[in-house]
Amino acid sequence: MDDNEFDWRTFLRRWQDEWVPSEDEAMELAEGDVTLAELTLESPPASEAEVADAERRLGSRLPPSYREFLLASNGWRLHEESIYQLGAAHEIGWFGDPFGMTPLYRGNLDERSAEQEVLLAGMWERALQLETDSDMSYALLDPGDTDEDGEWALYVYKGWSGEYPTRYPSFRAFMQRAYESFHAERARLPDFVNDTTRARDADVDRAREDALSGRWEAARDRLADAQRYGRPGAWGMLQQLGTLAQGYGAMTASFGGLVADPRCTHDLVPVLALAHVRDGRPGGPARHFALGAGTDDGVQAAAEEILARVRDGSHRYAPDGAFGQAVAEAREAARWGDTDTAWRVIRAGLPSWQPPAPDLLAPLGLLADPVLGPVVTRERGLELLATPRAGRTGAIPEPVPDLDPPGLCWLAEPQRWNAPHRSYRCLWVEGVEPEALPGLVGEDGSTGEDGGTGLTAPPVRPAGWFPYDVGQRDDSAPWEDRAVMAVGRTGSGWAFGFDSAPRASEPRRFFVSPAAGASRGGRAVVLWVRRGRDDTSTVFHLSVAERGEERYAYTLRGTDVERSGQVPAALDPDHVLRGVDDADRERRLLAAVQDEFGLSLPRHALAEGILPQLTTRSWNRAPREGEAFAYATVTFSPR
């Protein structure tokens, strides 16, 4: 409804009829401090002549919505915020900037200031003051800030707050927001039921159906409207949509009262716990885990247990039914790096998802699973929201593109902030499962002290921290270079280990390729790349072994090649790099390796640091008699 169709008399009469005292006002009435007559909102309408007299006195015609308001009610009592009374036509006047705000605001302007900042700086001297009773606050209409309909922007300035004024595009927008706030203040009163509350609650019900049917944007708009009126459930559902629309990186603060429902605990509390962990500092003091709503002892106890599991990375999202089976299958794929397959499994299972509580709109618990959470990117979160679920029907969205490029050439591309370092080294072993790698190249050469796999979970880190460590272990000898590798499986059946932060600069005199030890049952491939800085050449090392013996290897430094064994022509750098520009050398070498062996690496899983880890035996041999090994560290400190 536009302003030409807006009926002020109907709007204001509905507001007056729906008015009930707030808790504070009810107490004042009971104690006799005020009467109902004193709390009346509306005033008799102004006549056309009274409004015209005010306009002659002010020297300006009033904006349309405010003028029509005066003709419906000549003033209004507001019981919300810090504006208590809007004056009658004969009481309003020019503000005149009595507190000298103009030079303060103009002093902050420069050539980069936005148009709205310039308008605000000039507002104080030209504004029309509407309120006659307030808590050091002012309702100011600005004739210099207008729209195509002739409406003046209204600013509410709370003099005690130290904040910038709040801008409304028109007087009508200000009154509409005040009406919504009136409803929100009373939404929890048991007897506060009227046509408006019933209409907004019906919107919440329609939004629920829209959301489950994949029409999440329509649901969001309905819920945002209902939330401004304070309708129960609207905030919690709106936050669910907003959280999934951001994907794994969302920093959700609250789901309102919905978090108090024990049926929602395993979907919502882990998401809040993840945000709590991300917001903390490593080694910092423990902080209270606030759920954002009053909860019983059972929910609070469960929340503390969930927080502990989220913090140590052991939390797992495990819904019931067919969707739970899909989640388990997807986790197994993502666990070893195939996040694209994991998402396809989740996407196929979404229609079978059933909400454990009526106001739960989607499987938010996915986001807090340390393996599956990073799979749900922002684009995939939007795809999830657009997919019908819980037995609803609707249009199926187009699948978002896969995240992992094929092969290895992506390693040569410019890196994202949290992608592998400039140097990296990789190991592939054919025909074995990732769990077998500790027994082949692990630091203790076994399956773990307790008979486990010898693999460890990736470290849990606050948001923004790089997912890989760099540094020598305290218990290592100076010559040792043990790789901490992310471990997974390629689509072609090779187990792999990937170290994005090798401590040593490059393979040199003491280097011993782990390919031979890893190849006891078949083939193994080792790749080590160190990109040059400034005038330093890029180093590219490849070694291939089979059944415990190294077959061939080469190390390329600039244009110099050191070979051992018979390097196939398809891999030999003299052949691969013939006529290739310097900028494309790494890509060509990687393409040759991937084509020869059918190798790949999962970019998304590596960049997000979600794969289990393995600490290998040293890639350097111990010094022999008469040899020495040392590091020299140069530190530059300011004087």
Give a description of the structure.
The structure is a single chain. By secondary structure, the protein is of the alpha+beta class. It is built from 20 helices and 16 strands. It has an 8-stranded antiparallel beta sheet. The longest helix has 18 residues, at about 195-210. The chain is elongated, with a radius of gyration of 34 Å. The protein starts with 7 loop residues before the first helix and ends in a 21-residue tail after the last strand. Mean pLDDT is about 90; it is low at about 445-450 and about 470-475.
Features:
single chain, 639 residues
Uncertain regions spanning at least 5 consecutive residues: 447-452, 469-473
Report the count of strand segments: 16
Task: Round the mean pLDDT to the nearest integer and report it.
Answer: 89
Range of strand content:
5-15%
Indicate the radius of gyration in whole angstroms.
34 Å
Q: From the helix content, strand content and strand pairing, which structural class follows?
A: alpha+beta
Q: Please describe the biggest sheet, giving its number of strands, its sense, and whether it closes into a barrel.
A: 8 strands, antiparallel
Helix content: 25-40%
**Distance between termini?**
69 Å
Taken from the alpha-carbon principal axes, the silhouette is elongated
Going across the biggest sheet, name each strand in turn. 15-14-13-12-9-11-10-16
Number of helices: 20
